[in-house]
Every structure is written in C-alpha cells, then in structure tokens.
Prior knowledge:
By secondary structure, this protein is of the alpha+beta class. 22% of the residues lie in helices and 54% in strands. A hairpin with a 2-residue loop joins strand 2 (36-45) and strand 3.
Amino acid sequence: MPTEEFTHDVTVPAPAARIFAHLADPESYIGLSPLLVAVRDVVTDGDAVRYVAVERFRVLGPLRWDNPIRVTMTFPEHGRRIVSDVQSPGRVRLTARVDLTPDGAGTHVTETVSVTYPKLLRPLVIGQATKVQRHRLAELTRRMTVS
C-alpha cells in the first residue's frame, strides 16, 4: 500500500507547556479537527492514551456517515512531542507527530503526517488529511490566541 508524508508548521503565540497540555487531552480535538464530533472510550495506560474518535462526513445533503477511528497517543518527549497513531476503517493508517519548539514569546509547532492507504482511496485520504492538518493548526493558533 502507498504511503505519503507531509509537514506543515506554524508559530503559535503561547508557551509550549500550554499547547502540549491542550493537545494531550483527547477532548480538545473536537472541533480542532473539523471532522471530529466525538471522543469516547478514553483509557490512559502508562504513557499512552487510547480512545475512539468519531469523524463525521457529509455524504449527500442531510445524509452523513460517522467513521469511528482508533487513536493511540504517546508522549515520547514529554512537553515537546506528541505522536498519534490512527487506525481507520478501510485499511487507512495515519501517524501524526507534533513537535513543539519554544520560539521567542511563542512556540513553533510542526506537524508531520504519514498516511498509508489503499491506492483507490488516495484522492479522498490525501485530500482530507491535508485539509484537516491545515485546519487543525489554524484552529490551534486561534484557540491559543483567544484563550
């Protein structure tokens, strides 16, 4: 199966510790990721957090499809890095690594996404993954600026 990787970064006007705390909480991803509408079955196991995130897709008009995805979040460099491994139906696998680097009065946030998918799903998977990544970083910046 093909794999693609892409990176996007922003500078957020907030300390790394505040951003890390926000991103380490699964509930924070509701609305942070535009498709995510619910988080359930959250279990903390040592230095990992496992949960089910529910993505909602509009299919046609008022019709929608809820896609439950399994997420395992780890913290290999506490306060500096969060890694989320995502297993989605359809044999789609995604790993998102967020690195936080203090930068003056703010924090440089770099997110690298690696996604593996069945070849036929490429347009949907890559299109959604890049769109969600850019939205997530823009919304994170907005949340950290407003709060």
